[in-house]
Write the structure tokens for this entry.
Amino acid sequence: MKALIAVLAGDGVGPEVTAEGVRCLQAVAERFGHQFELQEALLGGAAIDAYGDALPEPTLSLCKRADAVLLGAIGGPKWSDPNARVRPEQGLLGLRQGLGLYANLRPVAPHPALLDASPLKTELLRGVDIMVVRELTGGIYFGKKTRTDSSATDLCEYTTGEIERIVRVAGNLAMRRKRRVVSVDKANVLETSRLWRSVAERVFKSDFPQVSFEHMLVDTAAMHLLRRPADFDVLVTENMFGDILTDEASMLAGSMGLLPSASLGEGKRGLYEPIHGSAPDIAGRGIANPFATILSVALLLRHSLGLEREAQRLESAVNRAIDAGARTRDIAPPGAPSLGTRAAADAVLAALD
């Protein structure tokens, strides 16, 4: 097949890990007879430096034409002034909104060979396979904001339609998994959460009667992710809660460098990125973990291009590389040798063959 893929390397370690994701895309195209046209563009801090805008028009235009978008990471100390008029994060939020990407999928399934890399007890991690579904274009991140010298406000707002569509995404995923969904909110305090709870319950009762469904307060969910993570199957929640809980859940796998994500809308176009940030402390050193980016490429192949066989082959290659001992610094045992970014990706490409 032919596909146009926008590549937004971003900032920090973004260009380093994205380069390995591109190598994997090229390898898949060569081995399976596809034609992937890869076009690069700027987003985040790099775009601010070049254009004075975190999401320049050429970048958004390319992404709207593309079949899929591969993103590295954005941000860093250079652009972290809280009083700055333009910030890298504005580019990412604008891109999600501009492409209508309202559903963020973050799978969390610890690799059996890496259970010791997690700070949790090994016995708690066996059988963990969670899909977190995070609403991505509503809530407090997109609400009206005000600020004076002495006060500031951020409006958290959700509509019935926004809640219905993300809950249906979770329901459809659950039907292909273990048919269990936990909806996370803060309904004991927030009106938005009370609306979320009532809409979610109605949708699941009417559209997904085969799915076991329960509500859970966000603080309770945060506790149970560490106490009994294997009990979760699909977890659906609003924007800010999902942002926080998925970073917590990354510790189940042992490192943020292992977890991919897919941001999807109504069509097939999606945005694919590792959940880790730009990691400016290790940028340029060639030691960042590329596995999350490579697994994000697998999600791109599956969800946007419809290439399930190729996606499974790439995921299997990552698993085989890890089984064979490929470890970057973040997942290597203390004092053990580790691979750099490129060498870790080489191990995946060798396993792909």
Notes: The radius of gyration is 20 Å. The chain has a mean pLDDT of 96. Residues 14-32 form the longest helix (19 residues).
